[in-house]
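User: I'm preparing a small set of examples for a lab meeting where we compare how different chains pack in three dimensions. I only have the primary sequence for this one, and I'd like the structure in token form so I can line it up with the others. Please keep the answer compact; I'll paste it straight into my notes.
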Amino acid sequence: MSIKDHPTSTRKPTVPVQQTGEPAAATPVTTATSGRYQVLAVLRIVMGLTLLWAFGDKTFGWNYATSSKQAWINGGSPTKGFLAHVEVGPMQGILRDWAGTGWADWLFMLALLGIGLALTLGIGMRIAAGAGTLLLALMWTAEWPLAQHTSTGALTASTNPIIDYHFVYIVVVIVLALFAAGDTWGFGRRWAKLGFVRQNPWLR
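Assistant: Understood. Below is the structure token output for the 204-residue chain.
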């Protein structure tokens, strides 16, 4: 049968034709696509709450990782307990010097609070991803999983020389920002409409 033998199809095109002066119809979001964004939203909220819990525990001493005596509000240092015992990596001396200093404590706690709130609420995802990457990279450097032995010769017990949980968290916050995860179950869309955010897209 030749091509001409086929009957002419009366089927209408599935894609609407845009007319001059009229906006094109929005492409409907499929259930599968919607489901993907909901998964990212759940991941965003879980990640945000994880950071907020760390902030709360270090601030008030909920007797999990931080005792009430070591709480920030009771005069404890959020950075001293960890940084003072860094014995691996090329920055171990510098990090030990930072341990317990006021500026380091404030920067660390503000980072936990700010990034945690941004992720939980779904606002400022780009700046949260940048700040989160920097914070987690510094924490990765402090643990330095590349090392097999500490400066004292003890085994580090590193489970993976590169891809530890800090690395995974870095990938997560970057992916959340790239896919605008704050727009689903968050305030990302409202945040993006604010004047100062429109003028400074990096704040999205």
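A couple of notes for your slides: The chain has one domain: 38-203. The longest helix spans residues 31-60.

User: Perfect, thanks.
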